[in-house]
């Protein structure tokens, strides 16, 4: 189980937690790649800069960002947008585009009035709260965002900035018309895919040609070897037949000589 502290500073701690989540959580979601994230982040950064620019705020102001803790079953976007937001605010504070680095807290829904409502209502400081992250559902309750919004309407210094599916950015940007850049990217991708396909087809044809040539060369060589073997077998048989004939002829000569000698010996005996 991944432990996420309720209170956290931005920067190294949030970044370490985000990296840990990415390594351990199979449900990892790259919220920065979503169409709604950039406008969502830009709005929060702009609000922070605007609040910090007010003269009344500089006289003794305090700003804190809150996130409503969701359940792990229904709150993937909420979980990952919170850590991405803290990281990006920290980076913006470092590069100077964010004029104030606010503190942050992730709280439970039941703690909303105490930790947000009562905090902004305390006297002595010009306090502002930004609720930047909220789940759409906890358990079977699908009205969490509405409950948070309704509960905070009585506080002028609480700013509801969490993203919802009803936001204009969700409907406009997710279904935005294809821009010239998008069209060019699409064309480049299609061209690259076509070139890759052609290259693969050429490679396949070349491979098929070489395989065919190799098979034909193998068949030709096998045929040559077979013919050579047949020729040698034929020559060996002919040589064997010739040698047999020679041996047979030699045997016949010896036989005739033996018969002649025998006949001569017998003839001499008869004469005596």
Task: Tell me what you see in this structure.
This protein has 272 residues and is α/β, with parallel strands linked by helices. Helix content is 62%, strand content 9%. The longest helix has 92 residues, at 180-271.
Summarize this structure as a short list of keywords or feature phrases.
alpha/beta, rod-shaped, 272 residues
Instruction: Specify the structural class.
Output: alpha/beta
Summarize the biggest pleated sheet: 4 strands, parallel
Low-confidence stretches: 1-11
Record the strand order, biggest sheet. Answer: 2-1-3-4
Order of secondary-structure elements: HHHEHEHEHEHH
- Provide the gyration radius in Å: 48 Å
N-to-C CA distance = 133 Å
In percent, how much strand structure appears in the residues? 5-15%
Entry summary:
By secondary structure, this protein is of the alpha/beta class. The chain has helices at about 10-25, 35-55, 55-60, 75-95, 110-120, 145-150, 170, 180-270; strands at about 60-70, 105, 125-135, 160. It has a 4-stranded parallel β-sheet, sandwiched between helices.
Write the layout of secondary structure elements.
Elements: H1 12-24, H2 37-53, H3 55-58, E1 61-68, H4 76-95, E2 103-107, H5 112-121, E3 126-133, H6 144-152, E4 158-160, H7 168-172, H8 180-271
Parallel strand pairs: 1-2, 1-3, 3-4
Helix pairs in contact: 1-4
């Amino acid at each position: 189980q991944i432990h996420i502290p309720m209170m956290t500073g931005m920067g190294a701690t949030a970044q370490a937690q985000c990296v840990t989540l990415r390594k351990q959580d199979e449900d990892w979601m790259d919220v920065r790649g979503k169409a709604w994230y950039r406008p969502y982040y830009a709005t929060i950064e702009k609000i922070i800069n605007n609040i910090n620019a007010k003269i009344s705020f500089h006289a003794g102001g305090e700003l804190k960002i809150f996130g409503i803790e969701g359940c792990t079953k229904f709150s993937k976007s909420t979980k990952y947008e919170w850590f991405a937001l803290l990281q990006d605010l920290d980076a913006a504070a470092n590069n100077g585009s964010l004029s104030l680095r606010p503190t942050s807290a992730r709280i439970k829904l039941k703690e909303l009035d105490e930790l947000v409502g009562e905090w902004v209502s305390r006297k002595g400081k010009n306090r502002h709260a930004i609720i930047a992250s909220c789940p759409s559902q906890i358990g079977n309750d699908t009205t969490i965002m509405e409950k948070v919004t309704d509960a905070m309407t009585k506080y002028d210094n609480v700013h509801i900035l969490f993203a919802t599916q009803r936001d204009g950015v969700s409907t406009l940007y997710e279904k935005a018309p294809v821009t010239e850049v998008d069209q060019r990217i699409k064309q480049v991708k299609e061209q690259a895919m076509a070139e890759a396909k052609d290259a693969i087809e050429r490679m396949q044809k070349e491979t098929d040609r070489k395989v065919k040539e190799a098979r034909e060369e193998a068949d030709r060589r096998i045929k040559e070897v077979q013919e050579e073997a047949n020729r040698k077998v034929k020559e060996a048989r002919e040589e064997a037949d010739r040698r047999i004939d020679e041996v047979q002829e030699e045997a016949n000569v010896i036989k005739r000589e033996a018969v002649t000698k025998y006949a001569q010996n017998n003839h001499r005996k008869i004469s005596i």
